[in-house]
Design brief:
The protein is 59% helix and 2% strand. It has 256 residues and is mainly alpha-helical. Strands 1-2 form a two-stranded antiparallel sheet. Helix 2 packs parallel to helix 8.
């Protein structure tokens, strides 16, 4: 996922700077309207939860602010997920000293009516999610626009171009550095993976640093190869000059 995010940042940056593709096959020939993508993402999330359920996998992204806007059924679903994910009932019974008996009686596990989140119609949930995804793709694809291919095809002078695809690449080290569109994209990716936003940012930043080290090493190897080749060519030229001089000397002696 980290590599995918880096690729998106290279070809579809979150800023408003104009960048030109280097060729007609460059993925950067297409520009993405991030504002429309954010709206499409919000529409997708609302479509998935329109039936009053928390989308599976989104439980980990529940925050204190979101709790106040959740319905009673959504709160039950979140507590069911929390109980199943974080509370080991068997472990509590085996080690009662971890939680006092009085506390366990005050907050019994499970729903009082015996129902559970698993009783939700999974087939219906899958259908709702698929419909929301298709609508999101339609909105996103309709926002894609082709850039001017004159530069990429060589029909226009390229010397005045200062920004190519991938230039002015932005690294985000802290959550507060994220722009509105960047944060929306990072949060969507983190939700898909089931991890926190901070964890995803750390993973992407580490991969960016590894790629930077690899790029610098590749450039250093190219410089060394070019230097060695240049030295070899100079030595060969010197040998030719010496040989040519000796041949001319012998040629002149025979003539006399």
């Amino acid at each position: 996922m980290a590599l995918l995010i880096i690729a998106v940042k290279i070809f579809f940056p979150f800023d408003s700077l104009e960048r030109q593709p280097r060729s007609v096959v460059d993925p950067g020939v297409v520009s993405l309207d991030w504002a429309k993508w954010v709206d499409a993402q919000k529409g997708y999330e609302e479509g998935v939860t329109s039936k009053g359920n928390i989308a599976r996998g989104d439980e980990i992204n529940v925050t204190a602010e979101k709790v106040f806007s959740m319905s009673g059924e959504q709160l039950d679903q979140y507590l069911d997920w929390y109980e199943k994910t974080w509370i080991d009932e068997g472990g509590l019974l085996d080690h009662p000293q971890m939680v006092s008996e009085q506390l366990l009686h005050m907050f019994p596990t499970g729903r009082s009516d015996g129902s559970s989140y698993d009783s939700i119609n999974l087939e219906q949930e899958s259908r709702i999610k698929q419909e929301a995804m298709e609508k999101k793709l339609q909105v996103t694809q309709s926002s894609l626009k082709m850039k001017d291919l004159a530069l990429a095809s060589g029909r226009t002078q390229r010397k005045n171009v200062t920004r190519w695809t991938g230039s002015f690449y932005k690294r985000y080290r802290k959550v507060k550095e994220l722009t509105q569109h960047a944060r929306a994209f990072y949060e969507a990716a983190a939700s898909l993976l089931g991890i926190t936003l901070h964890t995803l940012m750390v993973a992407v930043l580490q991969m960016e640093r590894r790629l930077q080290v690899w790029k610098e090493k590749e450039l250093a190897d190219i410089v060394i190869d070019d230097t060695e080749k240049s030295m070899t060519d100079d030595e060969a030229a010197s040998d030719i000059d010496i040989t040519s001089g000796e041949e001319e000397k012998h040629s002149g002696g025979s003539t006399n």
